[in-house]
Input
Amino acid sequence: MAEPAQYQVRDGIAVITMNSPPVNGMGYDLRVAVMEGLRKAEADTAVKAIVLTGTAKAFSGGADIREFNTPKAWQTPSLRDLNDAQDKLAKPLVGAIGGFALGGGLELALACHYRVAAPRAQLGLPEVKLGLLPGSGGTQRLPRVVPVADALKMMTSGAPITSEKALEFGLVDEVTAGDLLEGALAFAKKIVADGKGPRRIRDMKAKLAGDTKAFFEQARTQVAKESRGYPAPLEILACIEASVNLPFDQGIKEETTRFHKLEDSVESKAMRHMFFAERQTTKIPDIPEDLPLREIRQAAIIGAGTMGGGITMSLVNVGIPVTLIEVKQEALDRGLETIRKNYAMTVSRGRLDQAEMDKRMALITPKVGLEAAKDADIIIEAVFERMDVKEDVFRKLDKIARPGAILATNTSMLDVNRIAAFTSRPQDVVGTHFFSPANVMRLLEVVRAEKTAKDVLATTLKLGKTIKKVPVVSGVCDGFIGNRMLEKYSQQAMFLLDEGATPWQVDNALQSWGLAMGVFAMWDLAGNDIGYDIRKRRYVDQPEMFYPKLADRVVELGRYGQKTGKGWYVYDPATRKRTPDPEIEKMIVDYRKEIGVTPRPISDEEIVERCMFALANEGAHILEEGIALRASDIDMVYLTGYGFPAYRGGPMFNADIVGLARVLAAMERYAQGYHGEQWTIAPLLRRLAADGKSFNG
Output
C-alpha cells in the first residue's frame, strides 16, 4: 500500500505530495505523514522552502468521512495541530492547489504561507452544509485574506470560488498555467531568491473597511433572515466578528467553542445524517458493487406531458440523447415547446447560455408512434396514471423494444408487478417514480418489482445518480414509500379539521416547524382532484381506512386548488398568493355539526406531533414489510421529495431524536381519541421503543 504522502527534495525545495485516494481526505494517516514531512524539511539545512501539494484532481477534500464518528477523527495530530506546526515553520511553505481545496483542505492551504493554484481549481469552506462551521482556523484566517463580506458569503453559503476569483481576493498568490508542481517550485525558488520568509495569515488584520459595528448589525439581520432553522450561519458570523475584533488566538478559542456547540446540536446531527444517508441509498445488500451494468447510450420517453418533458430534460442535461414520443403530432409539438420555454427561461435568468440550450435541444428527437423506441437502451413510460393505459403501452413496447432494453414505468402508486406481467420480459421492467417537476426535484423512487433483474436495478440507480437525482429503492406497494406515508399524514391533518383546527392553522404550524409547505397548501398546489381520485379508489380497495368526507366536498364544488383559483384557500390570479377563505371555514363548521363533533382548542404542538408521528409510524410498517431497506432511505425520500427540512433529518430521524418511547406514548394517547382506531401502531416501533433503540441506530 502506497504511503499517504511522499517526500522528496528538488533543488533545495522539499516537496510533500499528498496521495490518499480518493480526495486526500485529512484522515489520521495523512495528517501524520504531512506532519513528518514538515518536520523533516524543517530539520534539513539544505532545504530552503517547502511545497505542499496533492494530486491534479484534489489538493484535499477536507475531513476523511471514513473516520467520522471514530476516535481517529480527533487523534493527535489533529488538523489544528498540523496548522499550528505550519504556522511555526521558519521556512516558507507554499501550498500548491490542484482540483479543489475544500473544508479542512482549504484550512490546510490557509495555514500555508503562500498559495498557488491551477486554473479553475475550486476553493471553499462548505461545513455549513453539515450544520457546522470551519473548525480549524478557517473562520479566523479566511477574513484576513478575503474581504470580510466575501468571506462571510463563502462560509454561510458553502459555495466554492474558482482559483481565478481567489486570485482577485488575494486568497492565492498565483494561478499557474502548465504543470502545477513546476509552477509551485518556481514560485518557491523566487520567494527564497527574494529573501522572503514565512508570511503567516494569523499575523494579518481582517479585511473590513468602514463602520464595523454597522456592518455586523446589518449582516446579522440578513443572515438570520436567510438561515431560519439553521444555527450554523449565525455562529459563523459570530466567529468572523471575532476575527475582526479579537487577536487570532482568542478568535480561535471562540471558533472552537462555537464549533463544539454546533457539533452537539440536533440540526448538525440531522444534516450529517442526511449526508451519510444520501451515500447509502444505492448500496443494495444483494447486489455486488462490481456487477456488470447495462449500457445507457440513448433513451426513449413515452409521453411529452409535464412528467415526460421534465424527464427528457433531466436526461439531455447530462448529454443522454432522447427520443421523445407521443401518439399525436399536436401533443408532441406542445411538449417540445414547453421544454424549449423552460430552457429559454433559464437562459433569460443567466443560469444557462444559449449555446448550451441549443445543444440540449438538439439531443431531443421528437417522434410520433411507439415504433420510434425500438433502438433505445432504456424506455421510460410517462403516460396517464391509469392501469389500462399502462397496460396498452407495455404490451406494445414488449413487441417493439430491443432485447435487453430496460422498460421503466413512471408511476406514483400503481402495481409495478402487474405492469411487468404485461410483458414477456418482467426481468427488464422497473419503476421510476420521478417527482414533479422532474427536471428540478432530486428524488427518484426506483421501484424494484418481484422479477426485476439485479443489473436492471443497479443500472437504473446509476442512471439516477448520473442525472443528479437521489435514487431510493422501494418495494412494490400502493404509493411506494413517500405517497403511502403521506396518506397517513394527510389523514391526521383532516381529522384535526374535524376536531377544531383550521387549514391555515395546520399549515402554519407545520411550516413554522420547518416544512416547505403545509398539507392543505400542498394539496392545492398538486390539485385536489388528484387526491379525490385516490380516495375513491381507496373506498373500494381499503374500506378500513377512514377519510373525512369534507375533502371530497371541496373537490365536488370545483375547488381543485391553484389551477382553478380556489381550493382550501383562494388564490390571487396574478400572484398566486393564497388567502384563507371564509367559505371553507363555514364548510368546516357545518361539517362538524353534521358529524356531531364539538370543536376544541388544538395546539400547534399537537398538530406537529400527530402529523410527524403518523409519518414515522407508517415508515415503521414500511421497514417491517421490507418495502424500504433502511430508515435512512425513508428519511431521504422526505428530505429530497417532500420539502422536509434538512435540519430535522427526516421523519424517522426526527422520531429518533424525540425518543421512540415518547413517540409511542404519544401515539397510544392519540389512539384513545378521535378515530383512534386509525393509529395501527407498528410492531417494529413497539419493539425498538421497549429496547431503548432507534430506527437509525
